[in-house]
Amino acid sequence: MAEWKKVIVSGSTADLAGLTLSGAVNAGTDTDKFLVLDSSGNVDFRTGAEVLSDIGAGTGGGDITEVTAGDGLTGGATTGAATLNVGAGDGISVTANAVAVDATVLRTTGDGVVSGSVQILLGGDLSGTADSVTVAKVQGVALTSGEATQLANIGSATISATQWGYLGAMDQNISSTDDVVFSTVNTGQGENELYAMDQNVRTTDSVIFATASVSQNLSVGGDLIVNGDLTYLNTTNTAVEDQFILLGSGSTPNGADIGIIFDGAANESSNTGVAFFWDSDVSRLSYAPNVSHNATSATPGAYIPLVFDVTGASHTPDTNVGNIKIESGEAYIYV
After folding, report:
1. How is the chain split into domains, by residue range?
2. Which residues contact 203 (CB under 8 A, 6 or more apart)?
3. What is the pLDDT of residues 23-61, one digit of tens each?
4. Per the CB 3.0–4.6 Å rule, which of 179, 247, 287, 329 could disulfide with 302?
């Protein structure tokens, strides 16, 4: 079925149902061919080896036949694409781009600081949890509730090592009943050629010439009517003032072929030539070779395509095979 089909030209947007290229070497058997866009914007043929070289890859001669998951991984494959996944364990969170320890696991920082939301259960000399510690013993020695209370009530003042030394030096054997005296306390993009015709003819007379031969210029002020079969113009050049020439007026039967014959064109015999004519059978301008000067019809050797500007001149395109239309800057041919 004939339809309008786009002609791909420079600047066109191609929408192709298929593309077959036969310009590759051994195109019928060598299927290892790729189309690539080079740096100049041209589509080129490249072999598989050339493509691998272009992208900096190897020759594809590896011997990997299987991908197997190792420790901590799952997945793998023996063909096609292989995917390995990290196996999630207790306290390990696995996402698309990260593996992390979640909040259920206690971890230390570089400084050895313990962080995390999980509490540490304590036992032995200490009991309770990390944020609520109870001291039960000091170096294995149990504390009484009173002693624990005294430790809990120690003030914010810091005692230096030196000061502890002072305390240690106070070995005075002082009993609860003695008076104590301290000596010293220490505390951030030719015309007009008319020649007389001496015939004594008046402008009101009718003149009939059996045979007339005029050797000078002839100017006719009115219509020149020739009632004959043929008109011969033996001139080198013919100048016609009319903008349009009407062919086949009155004498041509309706529906006949009408056109112009170029005598001797294409090395044809005299009075025979190439015709550019209207083919009445198909209502198309046509071309035909070897048409005689007295022919009344011609057989088209080809048709003349018509071009329609659908967008700019709002032409209505004629759907005859070979016609062309231009629409929105794109060219279409009816085939």
Report:
1. 258-334
2. none
3. 555 555 656 677 777 777 777 777 777 787 888 776 656
4. 287
12, 10, 34: which is closest to 21 by C-alpha?
A: 34
Q: Which of 294, 298, 143 is nearest to 230 (CA)?
A: 294
- The string of pLDDT tens digits covering residues 252-262 is 677 899 999 98
- Report residue 120 as tokens: 């540490």
Whole-structure pTM value: 0.44
CA distance 60 to 50: 12
Distance between first and last Cα of the chain: 8
Nearest to 298 by CA among 308, 315, 286: 286
CB count in 10 Å sphere of residue 88: 14
Half-sphere exposure of 159 (CA within 13 A, CB side): 8
Q: Report the b/e string of 38-75 with b at 16+ CB within 10 A.
A: eeeeeeeebeeeeeeeeeeeeeeeeeeeeeebeeeeee
Joined tokens for residue 34: 């790729």
The two tokens of residue 334 are 């009816």
